[in-house]
Amino acid sequence: MDRPIRVLVAKPGLDGHDRGAKVVARALRDAGMEVIYTGLRQTPDQIVNAAIQEDVDCVAISILSGAHNTLLPKVVKLLAEQDASDILVVGGGVIPDEDIPFLKENGIAEIFTPGTPTSVTIEFIKANVNR
Amino acid sequence: MFDKGKMAQVSEGLEKFNEKTKSMLAKNPERLEKFVSGSGDEVKGLYTPADLEEFDYSDIGFPGEYPYTRGVQPNMYRGRLWTMRMYAGFATAEESNKRYKYLVEQGSSGLSVAFDLPTQIGYDSDHELSEGEVGKVGVAIDSLADMEILFDGIPLDKVSTSMTINAPASVLLAMYIAVAEKQGVSSDKLRGTIQNDILKEYIARGTYIFPTEPSMRLITDIFEYCSKDVPLWNTISISGYHIREAGSTAAQEVGFTIADGIAYVEAAIKAGLDVDTFAPRLSFFFNAHNDLLEEVAKYRAARTLWAKIMKERFGAKNPKSMALKFHTQTGGSTLTAQQPENNIVRVAIQTLAAVLGGTQSLHTNSKDEALALPTEDSVRVALRTQQIVAHESGVTNTVDPLAGSYFIEAKTKEIMDKAMEYITKVDDLGGAPKAIDQGYIQQEIMDAAYYYQKEVETGERIVVGMNKYQIEESAPKDLLRVDPIVGENAKKKLADLRANRDNAAVEEKLAALRTACEGSQNVMPVIIEAVKVYATLGEICGVMRDVFGEYQQSVNL
């Protein structure tokens, strides 16, 4: 049998809003995935190291501080430098629609904005992880 | 409230009523099997005097009198309206200063400063962890130079200023005192509030720096310093707001906030302060969600509980030590990114809740805050919402107008009882700091948040425009954006500052700060000295990080 999908739920930067990250982490776990949550204030380096060490299939980044355009592409870039571009990267939080094309061009597979049901996130991850 | 004969009549009448309606309900079932409040508590179809059997008017008393259920002022808004205090700050000190002047011009009666995350966590704008965050969620303040610009042309003896700052509260307060001095305003004339509530940062908000013990010491140092030198300043704003935003119920908001309050009072008493010297300057900060009646009951419950705890548990004698004053902010997490105009209506309901609940000051959220920081136009509508409630709704004409309602009084009692259960549980775990270390409070809030999310996803709980009555929408335009150049400019400004100030003086003051931190003397005077020679926030917090260490979050899902 396949092992369960492994997801790193990550909070980059200085943002302390973790309700969304925790709710999504629980929902993914209840959907049968193995979930590791980084806790607050992670640098892109720390997130990438954790993703590789934990051998995850997906990094789900939650950010509400407005620093998404700086921090999310950095995670993708660092993953590529570690030959780990097969890891799916998704993001969620207070992210204006007009920033989404930029983030997608920079390797974020999908952005889930406020009001997205967790089921949508779960289905997206299931359908798009590389395995 | 009612004599036994009357009560028997009511009970008898109620039985007949229930009997009569049974057959009607059998034929026409109600819309829902169970009706619940915003916090998920069951609500009955009818409340009568039978629900208030043990209720006595002396339980709630008169406004301005113990236990302050009906409000902290005898005549409430007939005397003075609440302070309309809009939380604002973004990008640079110059931009934020302009927004403050605009808000004052539009009738805002107090300032409320939002700092960016690096400032809140004690990093300068040129620190590597500040990358991408400078000026984003608030204004970037690196040194006294920025603070001078922030309050330029704003007379600090005339306005009251609230600052949402916690871990480095002592430093920002020191800068405020120093700016005032330059304006010729002595510190005994300053009015305002620092949030200074570290416990809820560990629980829910996340901008902590130091471990619990030195953090509590910094807080009591502020209590002590201000009781002598800044006597009109509210030294803490014990905050349920963020606990609720993190997903708690109304009763948890009251219970955990008061449990935090108890911890601060205990810490100050342990540090040798007399309860009546500092307790009158304690203030609170609550949320306002959509369930109007539940929220009104919540504020009344909080006031009553605090009064009793201060009197009975801490032996306070000064009535001001028992009167719970609070600021309210409407609930950010209740706003939807979908059909943002609907948020104006939500905020209006929440405003009514806060005012009917007797708030002392209020921030109303803008319709676009589920998307970005608010624009000037949307902030104006939010402020106008308060003004309409103040001047047109009529609810300000009489004090605590919902008192005596069978439902409101029953609900007030219910929230008090539930909150007290949480307080007792926290006491059993050894007080709020220990309950936080063990993850108890975080876990309780998380469970409630997850439960709520599931209700929304199954459609049991309707959020208009989000899981029902959706429409096709185009991406909203005209959102406020902070130019990334703000970060670069802040770095340059810091480099200039470091090149041009008296660096020997900075070194000397930072060394004095280190000695104070290592010892037990009050740190406030040395921090004020340090900010005056333009030591930066990051340098000052850096010394404290060195001496105190950093808080390690316990992560559990």
Would you mind describing this structure in some detail?
- The complex is a heterodimer of chains A (131) and B (557).
- Chain A has five helices and five strands, in the order E-H-E-H-E-H-E-H-E-H.
- Chain A is an alpha/beta fold and 131 residues long.
- Chain A has one domain: Rossmann fold (3-Layer(aba) Sandwich), CATH 3.40.50.
- The longest helix of chain A is centred in the middle third of the chain and has 14 residues.
- The mean pLDDT of chain A is 95.
- By secondary structure, chain B is an alpha/beta fold.
- Chain B contains 22 helices and nine strands.
- Classes of the chains: A alpha/beta (131), B alpha/beta (557).
- Chains A and B meet through helix 1 and helix 3 of A and helix 4 and helix 18 of B.
Summarize this structure as a short list of keywords or feature phrases.
heterodimer; A: 131 residues; alpha/beta; Rossmann fold; 5 helices; 5 strands; globular; B: 557 residues; TIM Barrel; nine-stranded parallel sheet; 22 helices; 7% strand
CATH topology of chain A: Rossmann fold
Residues in helices of chain B, as a percent range: 40-55%
- How many DSSP H or I helices of chain B? 22
Count of discrete alpha- or pi-helical segments spanning 4 or more residues of chain A: 5
**Percent of sequence in beta strands of chain A:** 15-25%
Beta-strand share of residues of chain B: 5-15%
Principal-axis shape of chain B = globular
CATH architectural name of the largest domain in chain B:
Alpha-Beta Barrel
Which stretches of chain B are poorly predicted, pLDDT < 50 over at least 5 residues? none
Return the CATH architecture of chain A.
3-Layer(aba) Sandwich
What is the CATH level 1 assignment of the largest domain in chain B? Alpha Beta
The CATH superfamily title of the largest domain in chain B: Methylmalonyl-CoA mutase
Order of helices and strands of chain A: EHEHEHEHEH
Largest sheet of chain A: 5 strands, parallel
Radius of gyration of chain A: 13 Å
Alpha-beta classification of chain B: alpha/beta
Integer-rounded radius of gyration of chain B: 24 Å
